[in-house]
Amino acid sequence: MTSSLIDSLYFGDTFGNPAMRHVFSDESRFRSWLDVEAAVARTQARLGLIPVGAAEEISRAAVIERLDLAAMKEEYERVGFPILPLVHQLAKACSPESARWVHWGATTQDIVDTGLVLQMRDGFGMIEPQIDEVIGAVARLARDHRDTVMAGRTFQQQAAPITFGFKAAVWLDELIRHRERLSEIKRRALVCQFGGAVGTLATLGQDGHAVLDALARELGLETPSISWHTARDGWAEAIFWLAMVGATLAKIATEIATLMRTEVDEVREPFAPGRGGSSTLPQKRNPIACPIIIAIGNRLRECVGTQLTAMIQEHERSVAGQPLEWLVIPDAFVLTSGALKQAFGILDRLTVDAERMRANLDSGGGFLMAEAVMMGLAPHTGRNQAHDIVYAAASRAMEAGDTLRSALRADPLVTAHLSASQIDALLEPANYTGSAGAMVDAVLAQVERR
């Protein structure tokens, strides 16, 4: 049994997915440690620091099937450090002649950090196609609804017309920037760690940096200029990136859930019989994926705070920094993957009700077109006077429960400059979406260039 929702048999595939959980499972963790130990041996053998035969035997023994996991766990609970039991198990799987070269020049943090980097690389490798899927789904929404007019809202109130394609393109532009940031972040986060006890590789003499460089190449990782045992900004940046992705998805989910309100009802999550049903209210079709995405976004922001705390470390090895990262990093990857999965499920089949959007535009008495009328009147009266004229007309209409159209047609300060047909044209929402279509096209062009 598990107490964590992301590992739960019942909830786990809602908040994450099996493949990403496997990336950060015990099995993958032990395998990554073994891969690092084997790579250390092979690298040192190529540089003539340990016998080639020993490196070959260590590499053959560095498989999870050779580990006595129960004995490892027992020793770990006694010793308190995770790598020494692994080293003992690996040495036990080798001949005495080869065993003496296991973990040569390394320290626990070298293996744990580099092992976790390998897991993070696999995690990013899974997230990349997921975010690309979401980008594709949002791009389709932007393209399909480039000219679907709806109310733009500020401070929870109708403000001026936009298109749903414009709204989706704002999401899309943000997601594209996240995707572009990732290549930079990986360069700084997926870095080999190999520094020995205090980071100087003193046990390897003048060969230390050569080993580090060769080890990084062996593992396909970036080579640091200096050990980063207490410099955790690269990982903090990685978690911050995951949290930014989560925040963007949570923003989208919040918008969709808000637009699903009965009084608005302009978009809906994909529906299947029974989906979103209430245990109490049989008529309801509640948002289901949106609350999960919002919750994950909130949790990821908390992960950032913890990872930033892990940056504050003393001397050349911190007392408490590493365990914080062990808690935060796997959860952040699993949760982000879960949010992307949920987001794609919504966005790929989102119901967009253009008729309802138009009805909501028309239900407001035309007041969201006040700015358009002001700008139509401004060439005749000046902008400030036009503002005052339209403000007064809108105020009279609101107090009388009338429409803006009626108030404008009855106002001689307006009709002195604008005919009834001109007023009607200025009150048509489709005529006042500005450069929305061109902006959508510009964002879609970014997708096509990728």
Describe this structure in words.
It is built from 20 helices and four strands. The chain has 450 residues and is mainly α. It folds into three domains: 14-106 and 204-220, Fumarase/aspartase (N-terminal domain) (Fumarase C, Chain B, domain 1, Orthogonal Bundle), CATH 1.10.275; 108-191 and 228-356 and 437-450, Up-down Bundle (Fumarase C, Chain A, domain 2); 367-426, Orthogonal Bundle (Ribonucleotide Reductase Protein R1, domain 1). A hairpin with a 2-residue loop joins strand 1 and strand 2. The longest helix has 37 residues, at 108-144. The radius of gyration is 30 Å and the shape is elongated. The two termini are 44 Å apart. The mean pLDDT is 93. Pfam families: ADSL_C, Lyase_1. Residues 365-444 form the Adenylosuccinate lyase C-terminal domain.
Summarize the structure.
This protein is mostly helical. The protein is built from 20 helices and four strands.
Write the layout of secondary structure elements.
Elements: H1 12-15, H2 18-23, H3 26-46, H4 52-61, H5 69-79, H6 83-92, H7 96-99, H8 108-144, E1 149-154, E2 157-163, H9 164-189, H10 208-219, H11 233-259, E3 267-268, H12 289-310, H13 321-347, E4 351-352, H14 354-363, H15 370-381, H16 383-400, H17 404-409, H18 412-415, H19 420-426, H20 436-449
Antiparallel strand pairs: 1-2, 3-4
Helix pairs in contact: 3-4, 3-8, 3-10, 5-6, 8-9, 8-13, 8-20, 9-11, 9-20, 11-12, 11-13, 12-13, 15-16
| Relevant CATH superfamily of the largest domain | Fumarase/aspartase (Central domain)
- Measured distance between first and last alpha carbons: 44 Å
Could you say which overall geometry the principal axes of the C-alpha atoms support?
Answer: elongated
**Oligomer, anyone?**
single chain
CATH topology of the largest domain: Fumarase C, Chain A, domain 2
Keywords: Isomerase
GO molecular function, one term: isomerase activity
InterPro entries: AdenyloSucc_lyase_C, Fumarate_lyase_fam, Fumarate_lyase_N, L-Aspartase-like
Domain Adenylosuccinate lyase C-terminal: 365-444
